[in-house]
Design a protein that fits this description.
Layout: H1 13-66, H2 71-95
Helix pairs in contact: 1-2
Length: 96
């Protein structure tokens, strides 16, 4: 912290302040980047859960109506998961 020869501080107040502000900005930008990534992940899992719920319920309803037990349920689950991944890739590509 001190220069050994002159017993003066190595850095002035302004230099230390600038370093502190730069580090603070760096941490803020890291936090923003983390929150963006986290929001993509949370959005993806919510989309998967909703698509599974809708796929199962709509598929069971149609299967019971037409007496085709697992066909439409499986179809709507697969379509919902595919749509979730499509949304995930669109979101990732839009952030680049």
């Amino acid at each position: 912290m001190y220069d050994d020869k002159n017993k003066k501080p190595k850095y002035s107040y302004e230099e230390l302040r600038e370093k502190y502000i730069d580090k603070k900005k760096s941490k803020e930008s890291q936090l923003k980047e983390f929150s963006k990534d986290y929001s993509i992940i949370v959005n993806f899992f919510v989309t998967i859960l909703v698509s599974l719920g809708l796929g199962i319920s709509l598929g069971l309803y149609i299967d019971n109506k037409f007496n085709t037990k697992p066909i439409f349920m499986i179809l709507f689950i697969v379509l919902g998961i595919a749509a979730s991944f499509r949304n995930l890739f669109k979101e990732i590509n839009s952030r680049k």
